[in-house]
Structures are given as C-alpha cells and as structure tokens.
C-alpha cells in the first residue's frame, strides 16, 4: 500500500512512517503541513493519505479541509484523519464520502488494529473511532437509542465503525446469525431500512445518529 | 476736518448765545449739531461714500450749524448792535426747516444709502417742494413777530400770500416726513439677520423721538423742564443710525430696547405709586406732612426690587422674545432636570436649541484628568485653529468645559454668556456623570480583559497539552512499538509484556491528559456550543437533556455560556440532589440565552467565593446577566443572557 503522511510534529511523523514501513507498506511522501498535500497526492497517486486534523498555520481544522479536498479531487484515495480529541461534526460529514476514516491518535499504538483499519479505508471502506461513535450514541438513556439493549448498542457501535456482520461476530465472539438478529432488531427499532451494502449501512446508521443529535 | 470745524464753530455759537437764552438750549443745540456731524464723520471714515454719512455731514454743515451760529449772532447782535443781527435772527428762525429733506432722506435711505424703490424719491421731492413753499410763507409771515427780540418780523410781507404758502407747504412738508416712514417700516418687516438689527437700532431711536417729541410739544408751555428732552430725542436718531451702519454692538439692541422699555414702564409705575401714596397719606395726616413724603419714598423703595423683576420679565416676554425664550428654555430644562424628566447630558442640546445654533459643541473637562470629552464620553480633540469661538463654562470657580460654536454667535451679545451660565450647573453634573461612566466602562473593560486573558490561557494550555505532551507520548509509544517490531517474533515474552504494559500506560496517560485539557476548555467548543454541551451531558452522572441547535456565537460568548452550563450542572449534581437536568442554549432577540434547569431541592445562592459568584463575574464580563431562581423545593433554574451581534 502506498501511503502519504501529513503531520506537523516531526517525531510523530517519523514514528507513523516507521509504523507503516514496519507493517510492510510503502511511505511515498511525508509532509509537515496541508499546503502541498493535494499536489503531492496528485503526483504520487497513493492509496492512502494519513492526515493530522490540526496543522499549521491556525491549528484548527486544516487537515479536515484538506481531507475534503482530497476526497473531491481524488475519490479513489482513502483518507485517514487523525485527531487528538473527539470531534463529531467533521468526522460524520466526511465519513459519508466513503473511503474515509477518523481515529484518535493514540489508536496507532494498537498497531495491528490500526493497520487493519488503514487498509480497510484504503480499500474504500469507512472507519470511525469507537469514542466518536460512543459520542454519537450517548446519552444512552434518551431518545430512540435508549430503547436499545446494552448488547444492541454495542453492535450498533461496531456497525457504525464499518464492520461487517462477520467482523462483528468475530469481535463479540458470537455467531454471525446472532449478529444478524441483533442488526435486524436495531434497524427495526430505529426505523432504518436495511441494506446489504456495508458502506451504505454505516451511512444509514451514522446519518440517523447524526440527525438525532444536531 | 469738517467735524473739527463744526466743533469749533459750535463753541463759538454757544459763546454767542450764552446767557441770552436758557443755557440748556444753547448747549443741547450744539451737542445735537456735533452729534450729527460726528455721526456723519464716523460713518464716512469707515464707509467712504456712504450716503447717510454725507447726509448727516450736509445736514450739520448747511442746516444745523448755520442755524446755531445765526441764532447766536442774532441774539448777541441784537444786544450789542452788531450788523445784520435782525437778519441772522430771522435766518435762524426758518433755516432749520430747510433741513427737512435731509431728515426725510434718512428714513428713505437707511441703512444702505439706497432707495428700496425709485418711486420713493417722490417723497423727498414732495418735501423739497413743501420746504420751498413753506419757508417763504413762514419766514415772511407777520404772525411770527413775537419770536423776535424786537417783537416784530423785520421781513414781514403783508397780504394773504404767506398764509396760502404756509397752508400748502406745511402739510406737504409734514406729510412727506410721515410718509417717509413707510419704506422704513417695510424694510424692517422684510429684513432679516444683520440688516434687521441695523434697522432696529434706527427705528428704535426714531420711535423714541416720535414718542418724546409730541409729549414735549404738549407740555412745552406747561412744564418747561421737559424741553431739553426734545433735543435728547433728536440726538438719538443720528446715534442710532451710526450704530446701525457701523455695526458697533449691533447685537445689543435687544438689551437696549428691553432695558429702555422696562425702566420707562418702571418709572411710570413708581411715579404713580409715589403720587398715590402722597395723596393717601396726605389725606390722612395732613397735606405737606413729612410723613407723606417719607411714606411714599418707602413705598417706592419697597416696590422697586420685585417690580423691576416683573416688569423686565413682562417686557422680555413681549419685546425681547429671543432672550426670554432662551432663558425660559434653559429654566425649563433645569426644572425638568430637577424633577428627573431630563438628564444633565441633554444640556448640549438645550444650548443648541436656546441659542438656535446647530453647530454647537460642549466639551467637558473630566475631573482629575486633562482629558476633554463630549457629552457621550468620547474623547475630543480641540483644534483651536478651526475658526470657531470658544466660551468657557465655569461654576463655583472651577473650569468645567468649553462651548465651541461659530464665531458669529458672539454678535448675539450678552444673551450667549447668560444662557451658557444658566446651564453651568447641568454641565457640572453632566461632567461628573460622564467621568463616572467612563470609569465604570474602564472597570468593565478591564474585567472583560481579565476574563479573556484567563480564557486565552486555558486555550493555550489546552493546545499545549494536545499538541505537545499528548503527541510526544504517542511518539514514544510508536518508538516502543517499533522496538517491539525490530526485536522480531522470537523475543522473550517478558520483554513483549513489558513493552505492551508500557504502551498501555502511555495510552492511559494520553486519556488523562485529554480529560485534563477538556476540563480547561473543551476543544469541542471550536465546533460550536451544541456539540460541547452534548459532550458535557454525556459525561454527566445523571440524565441531561440538551436543547441546542448549530447556531454559532462569538467565541468568548460560547466559552462563557459553556462554563455557565458546567457550573449549573455541577451545582445540580453536587448540591441539588437532582434527578434530571435540562440544558438549553437558544438565540433570543439576537442574543444567546443559556438555561440550566434541575428538579432538585433548590436554595442555591451566589455567595461570595462560590462557583456561582465567579460565574456571575464571568457572565458580566461579557456584558451578560445571570439570574438564579432557586426557591426551596422548586428546583434551580440558572439563566445567563448574553447580548451578541452575530
């Protein structure tokens, strides 16, 4: 997998590059800000761009805006946005574009899981940090989400992260048929029309959660 | 030169007639001649070629002066047997009539020396014809013999002709004088501004003459003591004309008129009081008693003070409207100020209104500072070369400020300082209030700055935690993972576990730092108040309902609103024993209203040093207000309202 990394902190930038190399990937370029990011991507045509959300000059949402521009001009390039804190607005808006992921930075320390997510995003899948999902799902005891059981809420979070039924079954150590039953119940309770397409399912769930919370 | 000659010749005339007629007659005639000549000379020296000036000079040279000289020569000559004495006597009797056209022309030409319409020249011609007819008729009449020292007109012509000439000439002469007043009155009605004031001086003098002369004529033989008044009345006209044309103290005409009227009326009233008192007391204690004189004097003295005030007021009300209105307006404002219907800062507007000047500005000198400000408290620079004039406002010896207005306001005379002085007390109050308000503004601004500095500092620390310490920890974690990778799969399981534990520790540390940063100032606030409040609600240990949309407000207002919600929520959790809380952030009347409503025990008050008191300060620093409704058993409602523009 060909990767471009945009991260203003040199130490972290090098660490990320090493992480991808250790995982057998090819880091084609590393950048300290978002300025030349688009040009670099146009030139290198990577499969994945890893972008820090806060970068110079204002340290607010340069990365998020760059990510949106990348998705518009190069829809085939997966974008993984990294953040130091939970932020739902950008995350949910961008994840709707597909081939997009949003993770807290410390997720990189769970190397295996992080690389798996990165590969999923590069392949056109979606990923939202579990903390962001939790943020959208909470407060647990109010609204329609409050009608879900504890187990159903867990399944909903994994659905929103973009996991397939099989992956959810694997994660929760239950049979795939059980997961299917949970999903059916959840979608019924939330009035969401089911779709076999995993990405569209994520979108439906996210749109639902987002819509009830803003 | 002509004036000097006139003066010298008049001295001669007085000397000639001295002792042969009443002294006042000689002197006043001379004074009149000198006044006319002086007025003419003054006008011509300032405005060479001004017709009125030359008219006065001609009048003095060819009519008044020859008459006075002839009078003196005639009187002295008759006594000393000088030659041509009867002729001089005779000449003096009629020559003054020849000055009539000059008299008429004064009315027709004042103040600019031009006729209002060519047609009015006919009036002057009529007067000249009248003079031509009347003079021979009068001079040759045998009926004026008793005016001569020898009781006989030496040039008398017998026959009806003189009577006819007089009968035709006199009405023409007098009638043209009366008609000549018409264009003057027309001018007065049409005139405005300076010309109107010029005319008023002259008309005022003419009216005085018109009032005094008939009265004097009536009393001529009854009370000879009033005779000198006629000369005084006549002197007034050239003086009034000269003032009008030279524009000297032009604007004080109102004061002169008002004082004249007031003291005239006062004299009449006091004289009446005196006479009535004398009669009444005289009837009681006997005529001629010293008691009646003393009583009358006392009555007059007692009546003078209050009467003077009333009469002056009545005169001002009727004849000096501008002055009366101006002072009245100021008095009304001070009254309103006293009863709370007006604020002292309105004094600038009252000055403008009372003096009728829009371009008038009041600069206040702030107490204990060199700063000059306007009534709104904004500092003003005084560019002293801007052509405006400055009037100082003083009260009890202190300099309170300056009034700046166009320089021509000064021409309005004494009314300006009078009105400005009348408002000095209001200026003093306005000055103190503006000073106080500026200090309060300064305090509020410094409080806002302190809170803003605190918020900025929180923001900076939050950034430092996120972008500094947290990132560094992630980097260290990544280094450990790299080391783990480099060691390969065949490594001692203890090493793997140690590294895994270290990374887990780092993850926990990052979480803790994230929580710490969030408590300082949630980064979520960058995306809006709604998301930040929902995050707050999610972390709360009790059900919290959030009502907020995606509206954005100024950053500092959102920060203050967020901490209001935090404090209200903390209070509900810690002290209120609440089971649920509602957080509301809504836009109302352009501002932001944040409400925290719980169903707890209530009884919360913002005591000194408590979180709620600090919150009130924080809200006030943003120009907002904090309201706490927390009756026992009714739950607590905390409402903060912030004014905002966006």
Note poorly predicted spans of chain A. Answer: none
Radius of gyration of chain B over alpha carbons?
47 Å
Mean pLDDT across residues of chain A? 82
Percentage of residues assigned to helices of chain B: 55-70%
Poorly predicted spans of chain B: none
Portion of residues in beta strands of chain B equals: 5-15%
Order of adjacent strands in the largest pleated sheet of chain A: 2-1-3-4-5-6
Q: What is the succession of H and E elements of chain A?
A: EHEHEHEHEHEHHHHH
Straight-line N-to-C gap of chain A: 37 Å
Q: Enumerate how many helices of chain A there are, as a single number.
A: 10
Which sheet architecture does the biggest sheet of chain B show? 5 strands, mixed
Kindly estimate the percentage of residues of chain A that lie in beta strands according to DSSP: 5-15%
Spatial sequence of strands, sheet with the most strands of chain B: 5-6-7-9-8
Q: Note the total helix count of chain B.
A: 19
Secondary structural class of chain B: alpha+beta
Secondary structure: helix percent of chain A: 40-55%
Characterization of this structure:
The complex is a heterodimer of chains A (214) and B (646). Helix content of chain A is 51%, strand content 14%. The longest helix of chain A is centred in the last third of the chain and has 16 residues, at 198-213. With 214 residues, chain A is α/β, with parallel strands linked by helices. The radius of gyration of chain A is 17 Å and the shape is elongated. Chain B is of the alpha+beta class and 646 residues long. Chain B has 19 helices and 9 strands. A 5-stranded mixed beta sheet of chain B has the order 5-6-7-9-8. In chain B, strands 2-1-4-3 form a 4-stranded antiparallel beta sheet, covered by helices on one side. In chain B, strand 6 (581-588) and strand 7 form a beta hairpin. Classes of the chains: A alpha/beta (214), B alpha+beta (646). Chains A and B meet through helix 1 and helix 4 of A and helix 15, helix 16 and helix 17 of B.
């Amino acid at each position: 997998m060909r990767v471009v990394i945009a991260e203003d902190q040199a130490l972290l930038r090098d660490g990320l590059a090493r992480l991808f190399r250790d995982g057998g990937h090819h880091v084609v370029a590393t950048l300290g800000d978002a300025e030349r990011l688009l040009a670099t991507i146009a030139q290198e045509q990577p499969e994945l761009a890893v972008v820090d959300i806060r970068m110079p000059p204002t340290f607010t949402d340069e990365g998020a805006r760059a990510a949106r521009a990348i998705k518009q001009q190069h829809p085939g390039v997966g974008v993984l946005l990294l953040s130091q804190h939970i932020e739902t607005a950008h995350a949910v808006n961008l994840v709707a574009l597909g081939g997009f992921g949003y993770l807290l930075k410390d997720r990189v320390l769970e190397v295996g899981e992080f690389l798996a997510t990165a590969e999923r995003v590069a392949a056109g899948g979606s990923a939202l940090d579990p903390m962001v999902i939790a943020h959208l799902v909470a407060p647990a005891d109010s609204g329609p989400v409050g009608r879900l059981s504890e187990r159903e809420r867990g399944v909903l979070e994994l659905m929103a992260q973009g996991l397939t039924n099989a992956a959810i079954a694997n994660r929760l150590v239950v049979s795939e048929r059980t997961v299917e039953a949970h999903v059916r119940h959840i979608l019924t309770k939330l009035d969401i029309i089911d779709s076999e397409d995993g990405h569209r399912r994520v979108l439906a769930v996210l749109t639902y959660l987002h819509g009830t919370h803003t | 030169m002509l004036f000097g000659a006139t003066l010298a010749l008049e001295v001669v005339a007085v000397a000639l007639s001295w002792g042969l007629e009443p002294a006042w007659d000689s002197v006043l005639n001379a004074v009149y001649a000198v006044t006319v000549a002086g007025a003419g000379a003054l006008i011509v020296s300032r405005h060479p070629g001004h017709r009125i000036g030359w008219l006065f000079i001609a009048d003095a040279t060819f009519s008044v002066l020859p008459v006075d000289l002839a009078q003196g020569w005639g009187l002295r000559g008759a006594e000393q047997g000088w030659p041509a004495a009867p002729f001089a006597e005779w000449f003096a009797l009629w020559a003054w009539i020849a000055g009539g056209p000059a008299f008429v022309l004064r009315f027709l030409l004042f103040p600019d020396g031009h006729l209002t319409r060519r047609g009015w020249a006919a009036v002057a011609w009529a007067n000249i014809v009248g003079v031509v007819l009347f003079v021979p008729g009068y001079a040759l009449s045998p009926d004026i013999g008793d005016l001569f020292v020898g009781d006989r007109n030496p040039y008398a012509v017998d026959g009806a002709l003189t009577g006819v000439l007089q009968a035709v000439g006199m009405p023409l002469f007098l009638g043209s004088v009366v008609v000549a007043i018409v264009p003057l009155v027309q001018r007065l009605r049409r005139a405005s501004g300076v010309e109107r004031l010029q005319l008023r001086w002259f008309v005022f003098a003419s009216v005085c003459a018109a009032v005094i002369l008939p009265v004097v004529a009536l009393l001529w033989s009854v009370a000879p003591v009033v005779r000198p008044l006629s000369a005084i009345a006549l002197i007034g006209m050239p003086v009034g004309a000269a003032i009008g044309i030279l524009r000297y103290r032009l604007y004080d005409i109102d004061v002169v008129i008002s004082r004249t009227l007031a003291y005239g009326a006062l004299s009449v009233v006091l004289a009446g009081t005196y006479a009535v008192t004398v009669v009444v007391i005289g009837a009681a204690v006997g005529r001629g008693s010293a008691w009646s004189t003393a009583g009358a004097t006392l009555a007059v003295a007692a009546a003078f003070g209050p009467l003077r005030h009333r009469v002056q007021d009545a005169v001002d009300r009727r004849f000096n409207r501008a002055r009366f209105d101006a002072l009245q307006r100021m008095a009304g404002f001070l009254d309103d100020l006293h009863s709370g219907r007006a604020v002292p800062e309105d004094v600038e507007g009252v000055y403008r209104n009372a003096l009728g000047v829009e371009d008038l500005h009041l600069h206040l000198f702030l107490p204990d500072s060199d700063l000059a400000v306007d009534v709104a408290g904004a500092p003003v620079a005084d560019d002293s070369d801007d052509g405006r004039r400055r009037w100082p406002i003083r009260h009890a010896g202190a300099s309170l400020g300056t009034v700046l207005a166009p320089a021509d306001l000064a021409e309005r005379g004494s009314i300006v300082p009078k009105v400005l002085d009348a408002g000095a007390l209001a200026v003093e109050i306005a000055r103190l209030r503006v000073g106080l308000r500026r200090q309060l503004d300064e305090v509020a601004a410094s409080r806002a700055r302190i809170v803003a500095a605190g918020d900025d500092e929180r923001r900076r620390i939050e950034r430092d935690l996120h972008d500094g310490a947290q990132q560094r920890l992630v980097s260290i974690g990544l280094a450990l993972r790299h080391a783990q990778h480099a060691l390969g799969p065949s490594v001692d399981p203890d090493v793997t576990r140690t590294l895994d534990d270290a990374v887990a520790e780092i993850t926990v540390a990052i979480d803790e730092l994230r929580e710490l940063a969030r408590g300082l100032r949630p980064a979520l606030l960058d995306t809006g108040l709604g998301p930040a409040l929902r995050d707050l609600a999610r972390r709360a240990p009790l059900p919290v309902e959030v009502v907020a949309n995606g509206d954005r407000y100024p950053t500092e207002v959102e920060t203050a609103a967020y901490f209001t919600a935090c404090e209200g929520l903390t209070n509900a959790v810690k002290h209120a024993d609440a089971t649920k809380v509602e957080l509301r952030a809504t836009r109302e009347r352009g501002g932001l209203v944040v409400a925290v409503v719980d169903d707890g025990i209530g009884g919360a008050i913002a005591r000194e040093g408590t979180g709620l008191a600090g919150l009130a300060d924080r809200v006030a620093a943003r120009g907002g207000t904090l309201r706490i409704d927390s009756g026992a058993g009714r739950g607590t409602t905390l409402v903060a309202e912030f004014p905002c523009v966006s």
